[in-house]
TrEMBL record:
EC nos: 5.3.1.1
Cell location: Cytoplasm
Binding site for substrate: N11, W12, K13, G173, S211, G232, G233
InterPro entries in alphabetical order: Aldolase_TIM, TIM_sf, TrioseP_Isoase_bac/euk, Triosephosphate_isomerase, Triosephosphate_isomerase_AS
Native organism: Verminephrobacter aporrectodeae subsp. tuberculatae
Protein's recorded name: Triosephosphate isomerase
Pathway entry: Carbohydrate degradation; glycolysis; D-glyceraldehyde 3-phosphate from glycerone phosphate: step 1/1; Carbohydrate metabolism; erythritol degradation; Carbohydrate biosynthesis; gluconeogenesis
One Gene Ontology molecular-function label: triose-phosphate isomerase activity
Protein's job: Involved in the gluconeogenesis. Catalyzes stereospecifically the conversion of dihydroxyacetone phosphate (DHAP) to D-glyceraldehyde-3-phosphate (G3P).
Amino acid sequence: MNDKKKLIAANWKMNGDLAANEALLHAILAGIGDAACDLALAVPAPYLAQVQALTAGTVLALAAQDVSQHEAGAYTGEVSAAMLRDFGVRYTLVGHSERRQYHGETDQVVAQKAQRALAAGLTPIVCVGETLQEREAGQTEAVVRRQLAAVIQRNGHCISEVALAYEPVWAIGTGHTASPAQAQAVHAVLRAQLRAASAQAGRIRLLYGGSLNAANAAPLLAQPDIDGGLVGGASLKAPDFLAIIAAAH
Ligand code: PEP
């Protein structure tokens, strides 16, 4: 029995503009009612102020898509955890596979980013997941355990403050979703690793991400170790995002 409040987090990726953001937020807020889960929107950094203003006093919490591993200084283009705090950000994605793949983020960099987020009072949503090649080579468990181990090693004392997202790379943006059994199996591995690191592991929220949509959300979110979802494409369409939220109770 999973009695934690679920977390549904949207990842807008590099999409949106001022007008489209406003229309999307209005549609979501109009349809949301009494959501039974916690909700967060990871929006592009330039729109944090806009989304902060439009979601103030609502159930929608603000999230960033990335955070610098540095505290401050000569790091052109970077955004620090403290800057995110200034805009009311509560969560930040860390180590999304697109950051690992296109920006060379290593397990160690991801662990440092999680540390910066935690130090600033943000909840890092640490993303882990295997590629198709790794899954086919039977390496899924080893890959996600390695990715999580780096985060635990650096943040062991406060690991219960993170959220984790299992996002198989082969499922992100592809329309190929992990089956509920496949996802649960990996979540159980991650939970066991967290339990070995912390007595509080039971309260860490483990999200599933990867082509989550209105049709497949309910059985995935019903799994015992799946405590929410990280939603990319479907979070850009209010009816789809609202249906996923409705499935999270
Ligand atoms: C993501 O970007 O984190 C994601 C899960 O994307 P999608 O839902 O589009 O697969």
